[in-house]
Design a protein that fits this description.
Keywords: Membrane, Transmembrane, Transmembrane helix
Largest sheet: none
Number of helices: 3
Shape: elongated
Structural class: mainly alpha
Number of strands: 0
Radius of gyration: 18 Å
Distance between the termini: 64 Å
Low-confidence stretches: none
């Protein structure tokens, strides 16, 4: 029984750390958009918001799906995987555009 309690505690700590990472990235993208409004920073913010929604909503979605059985839980996992991949894709495009713009300006100086 002790092992289960330890695993639950570790899972909770990992979730808290993961949530702090999402919050940090969200704050950083808000600051970037406030300092430099561009398509790149906007995409970074949208990707970060979607990713945070997927993270927080994933707990709720999984809890609801778990009540409907294993098949519903697996379906929820697939849906969340696609949603998270899409949000990372949006974030990645923003990061790519930002890096291209930064290095283009840096090389032209």
């Amino acid at each position: 029984m002790e092992d289960i309690d330890t695993l639950q505690l570790q899972f909770a700590i990992a979730g808290i750390i993961n949530g702090l990472v999402h919050l940090t990235i969200l704050i950083a993208t808000i600051i970037m958009l406030a300092k430099k409004r561009s398509i790149a920073t906007f995409l970074l913010l949208v990707g970060s918001i979607l990713n945070s929604i997927g993270f927080a909503g994933g707990f709720i979605y999984n809890a609801i799906a778990a009540k409907n059985g294993t098949e519903a839980l697996l379906s929820a996992q697939v849906t969340l995987a696609f949603f998270n991949a899409f949000s990372y894709f949006i974030f990645g495009i923003g990061l790519l555009l930002l890096s291209i713009n930064v290095f283009k300006r840096h090389n032209s100086k």
